[in-house]
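Work Package 3 committed the consortium to producing structural models of liganded targets before the mid-term review. Because experimental data for this complex are still outstanding, the team generated a predictive model from sequence and the ligand definition alone, so that downstream docking and mutagenesis planning could proceed in parallel. The input record is reproduced below exactly as it was submitted to the modelling pipeline, together with the SMILES string for zinc ion.
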Amino acid sequence: MTNQQIKPHGGILVNKIKKIDSSGLFSISITEDLANDVENIADGIFSPLEGFLGKQDFESVIKNGRLSNGLAWTIPIVLDADESTATKMKETGDVLLKNHVGLGVAILHVEEIFSFDKEETCKGVYGTSDVSHPGVAKTMSMQNYLVGGKIDYIQRPLESEIRKNRLTPLQTREAFSQAGWKTICAFQTRNPPHVAHEMLQKTSITTRDGVFVNPIIGKKKSGDFVDEVIIKCYETMIEKYYPKNRCKLGTLHTEMKYAGPKEAIHHAIMRQNYGCTHIIIGRDHAGVGNFYDPFAAQRIFDDYPELEISPVFFPAFFYCKKCLTYTNPKACPHGDEDKEQISGTKLREMILKGQAPSEFILRPEVAQVILEYSHPFVD
Ligand SMILES: [Zn+2]
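The resulting structure, written out as tokens with the ligand in place, is given here.
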């Protein structure tokens, strides 16, 4: 990390990778999502967190969107357990966390266990307690106790196709430095790139050095594209349509929460930790259904003026047949009939029928990648 780079959130890049003997420790199994959280804590993607939130920080995050020391933090990073497991963990002190395939990945140094109000949590994070919201449904299905404490990360999972593009903040900071980039714009995504996204990214780097395309890999809702498709599509787009040394691809392995504005702040903090100076915040960023005002995820940045990473607000791009270019509602006066646009539902229908949409929507090479998969969507 060079001195000129943007500082991690809270000033220090957390590193909790440590060789420790875990033999004989009491162990529990954690979900793949939680195992990802633990690794993200260890690598400093969640800096300044060094573990799962304790009661004071948890309540402050829910109520104020900040840690108890006042630092911006909007999404609770927590480990849930039933009462008897939580009690046993507290008694034991150091607990080995095993991932979904039984590999002991980290040691949790339990500091406290506490119960929490699920409805209050949902209202604080998601702005609703409506169980048709996927984040609310997930919260309501959690165990009743949370276990707080710092972690040490002892062993990464085996490398795999899905992990090969995972980057740590140390790696991205090194890559940006090697590339000679000083201003880096992060692009958050959970979809294969439409040409309009490519144009938006290219517009954002016209006055900056490079774009960090950072797809979210992890549990998604039914109907979303599967992770492997998203990665392959981006690799294809970058190879065919980007000049050398302007676009870096790295995956972020964490669960989408669909928390709209609160998640936009969380997305920005993680990208600052990666070393990005800017982040593109689009229309209805991290939203779902009609739960959020489309611009709430942009307005919330007014409440966090101290964040070092700068949001870049973009309206949605589209191709306009009258303007003869990719443009947006701020620049194009024409009607919907002149726009090459497609809804997510319509695109899904076409793909399931084996049809590629117009070249103004998807690059033919990207469409080809998707069509080669027999199951491109999450069931
Ligand atoms: Zn137009």
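Reviewers should note the following from the model. Residues 320, 322-323, 327, 332, 334, 338 surround zinc ion (CB under 6 Å). These observations will guide the Year 2 experiments.
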